Amino acid sequence: MQHSVSIRDLSLSFGSVSVLKDLNLDIGEGEFLVLLGSSGCGKSTLLNCIAGLLEPTGGQIFIRDRNVTWEEPKDRGIGMVFQSYALYPQMTVEKNLSFGLKVAGMAKAEIDKRVARAAEILQIGPLLKRKPSALSGGQRQRVAIGRALVRDVDVFLFDEPLSNLDAKLRSELRVEIKRLHQSLKNTMIYVTHDQIEALTLADRIAIMKSGVIQQLADPNTIYNMPRNMFVAGFIGSPSMNFLHGEIVERGGRPAFATNGVDFSLDGYAAGEALQPGRKVVLGVRPEHVKVDEDGAEEAHRATVDIEEPMGADNLLWLKHAGHSMSVRVGGARRFAPGTAVRLSFDMGLASLFDAGTEERI
Ligand SMILES: Nc1ncnc2c1ncn2[C@@H]1O[C@H](COP(=O)(O)OP(=O)(O)OP(=O)(O)O)[C@@H](O)[C@H]1O
Ligand SMILES: [Mg+2]
Questions:
Q1: What is the pLDDT of residues 183-241, one digit of tens each?
Q2: Could you tell me the CATH number of the domain that includes residue 129?
Q3: What residue's CA is closest to ligand 1, atom 19?
């Protein structure tokens, strides 16, 4: 398969500080790839290397099999959209869109055609004669996207394009970016620290920590089969519950024991043998904890501590054997604080990690 963007052994240091370390990443033609990670993990640095705004310390970058490592940004066939819209304040929207093309010497008829097309796709036609100061944040960001759109680039690079917008606009524009990708089918590389943006937009997510990709997979795999505890804890809100314990044998089958309480591991698809005595961490998402009100023997009895009704869902905080645990149930299921419930886990959807390496078992 032809890769749209290939990154080979990319390293980047600022002085003695190493930000990216031998990073490898292949992005498919037309793929929507999201770089996700907490602040300072190197997302923008990686994007800026692809864009040609930063020179890597080592390694190479290919766009459509062409080595662009030493090419000027303008020759790479990329368009970049930043968090700060970076529009020319003295120019109208129309001029903001056409300026770059004019400087590049494009014929007026072609410029007009492209501006009209971008305005239609982004629904900014009625705004063309306005200046940026007379636009809302969402409208400004649309114009910023339009500027990349008119250039007819192979690859779009987005660096947190929605983080200056309020929550409602953010979710609206998120849907528009998804629609844009569905209709244009360009390769898009999108940096965010917002897990909802990552899960909703991405074909694949690359989760980064300290300049190293921790897992590269489709959103479903990242959510359900996190490779390590970092990925597991980063994705999901509230976070996955982590219970420290060990593997024990019960009736010839492996079980998970924590604070003297056993839970059968039947249904858990381990990638390797579950040796009794191994110290492990059981990870269970709030929606994979099951609670029943029909009584339980002491060991599996938990108490509802706090209830947080959220409309569609109801979030419970349980206390069990010294642990505090979050549980998501349907909005119609209500539990008064102090209610005793029977606790169990959907092991088929749980994750087991080695307590030492924190890697998935
Ligand atoms: N010009 C620079 N000189 C020195 N260090 C820098 C420079 N630019 C970035 N860094 C450092 O490199 C690391 C990665 O920065 P980067 O901007 O890529 O993070 P990020 O993942 O985009 O974070 P954020 O989500 O906050 O934007 C940070 O620790 C940052 O302090
Ligand atoms: Mg950044």
A1: 889 999 999 999 999 999 999 999 999 999 999 999 999 999 999 999 999 999 999 99
A2: 3.40.50.300
A3: 40
**Helices (H) then strands (E): counts for the chain:** 8, 20
Whole domain around residue 97: which residue ranges?
3-234
- Alpha carbons 349 and 195: distance in angstroms, whole number: 20
For residues 284-303, give the mean pLDDT: 90
- Is 174 within 8 Å of 200 (Cβ atoms)? yes
Residue nearest atom 5 in ligand 1 by C-alpha distance: 14
pLDDT at res. 356: 97
Task: Take atom 28 of ligand 1 and give the residue whose Cα is closest.
Answer: 40
What number is the average pLDDT over the span 112-132? 91
List, chain by chain if needed, residues with CB within 6 Å of any ligand 1 atom: 14, 17, 19, 37, 39-45, 193
Please report the pLDDT score of residue 1 as a whole number. 57
Residue 70 lies in a domain: yes
Q: What is the DSSP letter of 298?
A: G
Q: Can you give the pTM of this predicted structure?
A: 0.91
Mean pLDDT for 159-182 is 88
Atom of ligand 1 nearest to the CA of 191: 22
